Amino acid sequence: MNTHIKALQDWQLKKTCHKHKDKKIEDRLFTLFEDGSVFSHPFTNDRGHSFEGRFLKQGKLCGRPHSKVTVNKKTYNLPPHRVVAEVCLSDWDDSRQVDHINGNPMDNRPCNLRMVTARGNHRAHVKCMKNASSKYRGVFLNKANNKWRSVLMGKHLGFFKHEASAALAYDRAAEAAEFYQEALNRNNFPELQTLTGA
User: What's the fold here for domain 126-194?
Assistant: First the structure.
């Protein structure tokens, strides 16, 4: 079967089974799907060359699936999480960022995505650095005094004898700074939920 015909058939079938949205980028038409895929409709460029409809191939950017397209010599990025958000989120706003609620950038289910400001994105799910001295966010072992240091956004919150106490101090400061609940240590480490921190 001709690849162009098959692409059109796949597009038509997908439109009947999946939530989708047509989107114009300059003078080009695309269909975005709820699974993050993007279909480029047939078009003729300014030199009179015709191009058949096709699904955009997904490459990799920083280890994550990523699509992009060039229109009139300008490159537009179409990462799957933003495609899904544009199709599925009622409060979609192109000027805002899309946050993965559970912190997993590969989990692009609509229920795991939300629109946030850049500031809000920094107050969402925060992962610990690899090889960190503590498994908790914002907690580091100070080798000079052998105590646990709690830090939020570069601000020193104090030294603590117990690692868990430092983690809860971070949580208190994070809540005061209006961080999302997913960023708090106690919501990611069940053993902290029965402690009161000191």
Answer: GCC-box Binding Domain (3.30.730)
The dotted CATH code for 3-119 is 3.90.75.20
Q: What tokens were used for 89?
A: 């989120």
**3-state SS record for the chain:** CCHHHHHHHHHHHHHHHCCEEEEEECCEEEEEECCCCEEECCEECCCCCEECCEECCCEEECCEEECEEEECCEEEECCHHHHHHHHHCCCCCCCCEEEECCCCCCCCCHHHEEEECHHHHHCCCCCCCCCCCCCCCCEEEECCCCEEEEEECCEEEEEECCHHHHHHHHHHHHHHCCCCHHHCHHHCCHHHHHCCCC
132-162 residue pLDDT tens:
899 999 999 999 999 999 999 899 999 999 9
- Name the pTM for this structure: 0.73
How far does CA 163 lie from the centroid of its chain?
30
Q: What ranges do the domains of the chain cover?
A: 3-119, 126-194
Distance CA 147, CA 124 (A): 27
Q: Which of 20, 19, 36 is nearest to 82 (CA)?
A: 36
When pLDDT is averaged across residues 101-123 and rounded to a whole number, the result is 88
